[in-house]
Amino acid sequence: MNYLRVFLPSSADYKSARTSWRKDLLAGITVGIVALPLALAFGITTGAGAAAGLVTAILAGLLAAIFGGSNFQVSGPTGAMTVVLVPIVTKYGVEVLIPLGFLAGLLTLLLGILRAGSIINRVPWPVMEGFTLGIALVIALQQAPTAFATPSIDGGRTVVTAWNTINGAIDNGLNFSAILIVLLTLFIKFTYPKLVHRFKIKIHIPASFLAIVISSIVVLALDIDIPKVGDLPKAIFHLNKIELFGLGAYELISAVIAIALLASIESLLSARVADQLAHIHDDEHKYQPNRELFGQGLASMFSSLVGGMPATGAIARTSVNIRAGAISRLAAIFHAVFLLSVVLFLSPIISSIPTSALAGVLIGTSYRMASPGNLRELLRTTRLDSSILIFTAAVVVFVDLIWGIALGTALYFLLKKLKRK
After folding, report:
1. Which of 239, 284, 242, 296 is nearest to 117 (CA)?
2. What CA dihedral angle connects 378, 206, 396 and 87, to 10 degrees?
3. What distance in Å separates the CA atoms of residue 309 and residue 418, rounded to the nearest whole number?
4. Helix (H) or strand (E) holding 290
5. How many C-beta atoms lie closer than 10 Å to residue 215's C-beta?
6. pTM score, two decimals?
């Protein structure tokens, strides 16, 4: 029992709550506003629907905040996870997310109990940077069907699917209304922060949220006929039975391992970045990698059972949480409560959001993830690091995300060993 006690919540997690809850509340609402369009967009991109994205952001975000090992981590549906889930859902149907999410969550939880967090945490930085760049490119490519308001034409790999989809959209006649909404969303997303800085606007509204609001108003005012999120189910949380839905043993095991490894790696990376952003250096306040895996596993298990998807720690939302002044894990809890309130009281408004605007948000998010300025600096570092970065990104885009991490890590240590000789 003493062994498992380190994985459970304690009063020490909330010792600053009395003095910090107001700052945590403000940070939670801020990150909740950022998380709302992303949750909708990732749910739709995966093929599970907007409701699934919201369930994941709310329930997984809450459980990971309570049971996870980071005081700043914000969890939910992420672009990296969609990279793994999209081909699975396309091939086997959305129902397979129930057993896959539950079993992958269980495996992630067991990795935490077996204290594998410290091992996973040793993935080299050039590999992680290449991994992030590859994911950013794949997320952007995945938006082709939504951005062009056209059916996806499967080609196996993401690049081929995007190419086929764009060609199909051109052959059938481009939907210029949808494309213009994507461009409007991107324009607002990138222009608004510059205006805030230039005119020193004190009231800060997240750019993605503002872009969604303005794009939705334009579509409504001009009565533009493009796809929208649509009505959310009255009960977005619903208990599901665990069935395999035709999955064979090989498909089941390989998918579960891929999802669990991704959830583990991305969550630990995000938690590590969070400590750096928050300037945490003492061991007492640093994130606990094994507890983080335990919490993320628990979050994915329960999320998948009630209509959600596997979840991970989200670097972008976590960084927003810290910049907004979060002091403790209460901020991530408030973020989940805020999203639940939005679903309960603003569902009709959510249903009228154009999906093209969500595609624009994700394309903009992928650009931020790729971070061209930071990428240029990284490519000017040692030849070993820049080569590994490019190699990892290429494998992620053209082969597979997990293979990108595995081959990138193996090549890094091989080249480093050869260099010593």
Report:
1. 296
2. 180
3. 42
4. helix 289-305
5. 28
6. 0.86
The β-bridge partners of 76 are: 312
- List, as one string, the DSSP characters of 352-380: TSBHHHHHHHHHHHHHHHH-HHHHHHHHT
Evaluate whether 34 touches 206 at the Cβ level (below 8 Å).
yes
Give the pLDDT confidence of 155-165 residue by residue, as tens digits.
778 899 999 99
DSSP state of 233: P
**Assigned token pair, 279:** 């300037």
Tokens (6 digits) for 190: 């990138």
Calculate what percentage of the chain has a pLDDT beyond 70. 99
Distance in angstroms (rounded) separating the CA atoms of residues 170 and 2: 62
Tokens 């910049």 correspond to 323
Contact 302, 108 (CB under 8 A): no
Distance CA 324, CA 316 (A): 12
Per-residue pLDDT of 220-248, as tens digits, reads 999 999 999 988 877 788 888 877 777 78
Please check whether residue 246 is in contact with residue 270, taking contact to mean a CB–CB distance below 8 angstroms. no
Please name the residue that has the structure tokens 């975000």. 61
* Residue 332 · residue 78 · CB < 8 Å: no
